[in-house]
Specification:
Elements: H1 3-23, E1 32-36, H2 42-50, E2 55-58, H3 61-70, E3 79-82, H4 91-97, E4 100-104, H5 107-119, E5 124-129, H6 146-154, E6 159-165, H7 178-194, E7 203-205, H8 212-217, E8 222-225, H9 227-230
Parallel strand pairs: 1-2, 1-8, 2-3, 3-4, 4-5, 5-6, 6-7
Helix pairs in contact: 1-2
Length: 235
Amino acid sequence: MGQDQIQARLEQVRERIALAAQRAGRNLETVTLLGAAKQVGPERILMAINCGVQHIGENRVQEAESKFDRLPLLRHSATWHLIGHLQTNKARRALESFDVIQSLDSIRLAQMLDRAATDLNRRVPVFIEVNVGVEATKFGVTPDGLMALAEAISQCGQLRLEGLMAVPPPCEDSEEVRPYFRKLRELLEGLNRRQLFDYDVGGLSMGMSHDYEVAIEEGATVVRLGTAIWGPRSR
């Protein structure tokens, strides 16, 4: 797929994002498009960046490192988000490759990231990954464990909590996933009522290629799109 095709796909995506925001009575500028680049080659990622995609997400530290090795200019051509599970022993490596960590899911990981960020003299934006469907096969803190993790983050001087992230259970109909998006929004509202931070935490990273319009209607501020931008996965 060439850059012209990616550009055409992005134009369709942006139009659908705008319509979803309009339906929800939201300002289009409150929605960030993130290109989910798992198994997408560095050249195709660069094409999307050249078409205006400013945020890129990767699932694994090693995959990002490999792409930066192959095409070094990628690292500083976009804001990079880790959107996949992060093992505590890779906290420092993650901070060397990523600007934002969206998959913070434990107190121990928060402490490891805070320590690594201190060493690197960085203030790191993070999202808490919430397992909204309480699925045994998914990572993420349970809704019941969210507040304890948020409290721990509030004690980490180098971490700034930007919001919540979720990967809801797979649903045939995008409308079936709406309650999970709504749940994440309600959890964020509850977190803000606790006033753990001296600011309102506003981020909701939810919605992928098959359901991002519903996510936007329910308050998503970041939608993570892969196939919608690059087509079928291939290197």
